Amino acid sequence: MNPRWIRFACSLFLGVPASLHAQQDEAIADALAGVLAAADARNYDGPLFRSASRHTDPIVRVQAALAMGRIGQRGATPILLELLADPDTAVAASAAFAIGLLRDPSAIPRLRLLAMDETGHAAPGVQTEAVLAMARIGGTDAARVFTDLLTRWASAAGLAAVPPPVTEALGDAWRLGADAPVAAILAFAEAQDPNVRWRALYSVGRLKAQAAADVLLAATEDSVALIRATAVRELTVAYADSTRIDRNALASRVRRLVADSDAYVRVSALRALATYGTQELAATVIERLGDPDLNVRVQALAALGQLRGAQSADELAGYIDEGAFAIRRQALLSLARAAGPAALDPVRKWRTDPDFRLRSTAAEALGVIGGDSAVAALELMVRDKDGRVAAAAASALGDADPARAFNVLRTMTNHEDPIVRAFAAARFAARDDTSGVAALLDLYARAARDPIPDARIAAVTGLGRLSRAPGAGTLVVDAVLRRFPTCDDYLLRRVAGTQFPQLAAAWGPAEPITTGRERGDYREIARRILIPSARGAAGPGLVIETDRGSLTMTLLGADAPLTVNAFLRLADRGYFDGSAWHRVVPGFVAQDGDPRGDGSGGPGFALRDEVSRQHFTAGMVGLALDGPDTGGSQFFITLTPQPHLDAIYPVFGRVESGFELLAGITQGDRIRRVRRK
User: Fold this and answer.
1) Mean pLDDT on 315-331
2) DSSP secondary structure string for all residues of 299-349
3) What is the 3-class SS of 602-650, one letter each residue?
4) CA nearest 259: which of 222, 304, 306, 296?
């Protein structure tokens, strides 16, 4: 049969001509383009968002709500309050989420009605987002709602009937700080549902609540590993002192979990045990150096460094010459902490190693050791031919001896490495001497060609500090404006706004941002990435091939379309191929995406944060940041649930398979290739 007749027959059957579907999609894409463009530019356009909030398609209304929250102008609150009554629950929930991003306390009365749901008509998703929004807004009024909500349901804590909004309230109550209703939270600590128990413990743990001591101790014997880990990581020496629990008694409880059956529990116990700082605990930690989990061994080495003493130092010395990079690196850093100047000889061996990572670790270790010999070695290492090593040495030198660091770094304002120049700028600024203005201006000019903004930011920050010297403000700002009357980098204008207000007045506000995109670019992203994902289609898939195997991830186009678009473009050009996991924190995250390999690199552009309703459960892919709207190519994967990252870091992907490989990945492991699935 002729394909045209098939399409015609289908359109008759569906009751809508195929051409009309296409026209509708184009209209939706065009509306979304305007919303995406405004969010990307951080430009609150009231009429645009008023119109988008009334669009016939809920996809547009959802994105409008998210955009208003991300832009952060409280003038959007009235529109978002209207959207709380939207018949589409995804729209209403997104509006509640956005209000939480605005942190507008005027919205609390309306959010309270949804959170308490006294009419019984609120959709669970909307009710949940209303609760979370109040936690982010904070204050006594929000805390009062939490108290009322948790008290109402406390009688059901022993049942598997605690509703999702209450469960989420338990997990986010820590955001209320000193206003958090600790007693009401603790009523759920023995709930039948392990997720409820965990969230209650998570909040009281982050609050360091003294009243939670007995509950935390009991939770170390819970049947659920995540709960045991959450409890034991809080049982530090500081917690013992604050609750007047005997240190030895609490350390004894922590020691038991160092040999737990779950690796994450062992990691958490080792971290807590290390805070006690007594050599008597070293034997317990040393036993874990033979742990089957490599990251537990790394954590054990870190703990020995904190416990210090001869026994720790003797054990650490045996791990610096062979094995995985993560093991050797942590062993040397811990040896520096445990042995001090006695560790100088093994550190010197690494100073000339062909591997830049080992030389950088040597520089870091010298900074830990301190003293004249270590500082003298760092003065030489700042001249290393590899800028990454020079940067590590400059950082360590600045911490170890600021005066000698200035004498060395003042000659490096034209260094080829931007991170070295950033440390040089910090040294000039630390002297409060306006004679450094010319050097910082030269450094800023040199940094204009850098692919990353660190040196430029350091120069503006330094100039701002020098301008605060008595009588120096006008002198410094005039010197800057003579050479740089304008600035088109929103990150620098933002830094000027907080660090150098006189300069900010001349350069102008950070927002709206010039993004370099046309409306057609946003329309294409909406058509290709956002709309299919919002309608339930599987997002683009990526495969990360590592030396330990492959893992696959799905990118979340409806939650972070601009981030997904940027990530796909980088992957398609092989940007990530051959890189390394430059940061792995056992039980927390594995991070990659830095072409430098030291955590300082980026792609030469910055993305605006597309935070969303997605939560950082285990296996979520987030965009690494160095402050708001600074994301680029660096990404991380959560190894365990991390609720404190929610609504701060953008979630743009989810691991679908191969997650178990991440447990074996350590710092320095290689990524062979990242490709589309």
Assistant:
1) 95
2) HHHHHHHHH-SHHHHHHHHTTSSSS-HHHHHHHHHHHHHHHGGGGHHHHHH
3) CCCCCECCCCCCCCCCCCEEEECCCCCCCECCCEEEECCCCHHHCCCCC
4) 296
Domain of 130: which CATH number? 1.25.10.10
DSSP code of 511? -
- Please check whether residue 276 is in contact with residue 246, taking contact to mean a CB–CB distance below 8 angstroms: no
Is residue 232 very low, low, confident or very high in pLDDT (cuts 50, 70, 90)?
very high
How many separate domains does the chain show? Answer: 2
Residue ending a domain, among 77, 110, 137, is 137
Q: Which of 137, 169, 187 is the last residue before a domain boundary?
A: 137
Place of tokens 């062993």: 331
- Do the domain assignments include residue 40? yes
- pLDDT of 544 reads 97
Instruction: Please check whether residue 213 is in contact with residue 228, taking contact to mean a CB–CB distance below 8 angstroms.
Output: no
Q: Which residues of 195-223 are buried (b: 16+ CB within 10 A; e: fewer)?
A: bbbbbbbbbbbbbebeebbebbbebbebe
The domain containing residue 91 runs over which residues? 3-137
- pLDDT (tens digit per residue) in 262-272: 999 999 999 99
Residue 333: pLDDT band by 50, 70, 90 thresholds?
Answer: very high
The CATH number of whichever domain residue 636 belongs to comes to 2.40.100.10
- Cα dihedral sign for 57, 63, 65, 67? negative
List, in sequence order, the alpha helices (H) in 324-417: 325-339, 344-350, 356-369, 371-381, 387-400, 402-409
Peptide bond into 512 cis (omega under 30): yes
Residue 228 lies in a domain: no
Is pTM beyond 0.85? Reply is yes
Residue 154: inside a domain: no
On whether residue 642 sits in a domain, the answer given is yes
